[in-house]
Write a structure and sequence with these properties.
19% strand; 2 domains; 3-stranded antiparallel sheet; alpha+beta; 6 strands
Length: 165
């Protein structure tokens, strides 16, 4: 790291701290040549490769705006969307890759959105996964029902006989 005052390349780290969200490190440095101190920020970059081949920086805001459309009219707050976007980013960063396909980002959104709001999940999945028929919706709804049964402790769907006296 070059000193911004004397342009010397030899400096030592005096202090290091992570940023609030842990995505960057703030380092306080001191130049070994002139003795002046300066601050640097280090952050990992994450790029998204779009279908067109264009590469752009990953953006939580784009995640939030895309999911917000699916959540329109649903009881989902901006805080919920911010947490979802953070969770998606953490999931992607945990893979240890610097570039990811836009399709993979969309797939990473599905599970957290499914947990947040099932109707919004169906809306997002229908567009993202290109549902073409009622059968596609039925399969997704059946999957949601199966998950609900598992979470409630039931191993099968109730039948009319279960409710007979």
């Amino acid at each position: 790291m070059r000193c911004p005052f004397c342009r010397e390349s030899d400096s030592r780290v005096v202090d290091s701290r992570t940023s609030e969200d842990g995505a960057a490190i703030r380092r306080r440095r001191q130049c070994r040549h002139c003795g002046r101190r300066f601050t640097t920020m280090e952050a990992t970059s994450l790029s998204v490769i779009k279908r067109s081949g264009v590469t752009e920086e990953f953006s939580r805001q784009k995640i939030m705006s895309g999911v917000r459309k699916a959540c329109q009219g649903r009881p989902v707050s901006d805080d919920d969307l911010a947490k979802l976007a953070q969770r998606v980013e953490e999931n992607i960063r945990s893979r240890g890759i610097a570039e990811i396909d836009a399709d993979e980002v969309g797939l990473s959104i599905l599970d957290p959105l499914r947990e947040l709001d099932q109707v919004a999940y169906l809306r997002f999945a229908s567009v993202y996964q290109g549902f073409d028929s009622l059968e596609d919706f039925e399969a997704a709804i059946d999957s949601l029902r199966a998950d609900a049964l598992l979470q409630s402790g039931q191993t099968r769907e109730p039948t009319p006989d279960d409710f007979a006296d």
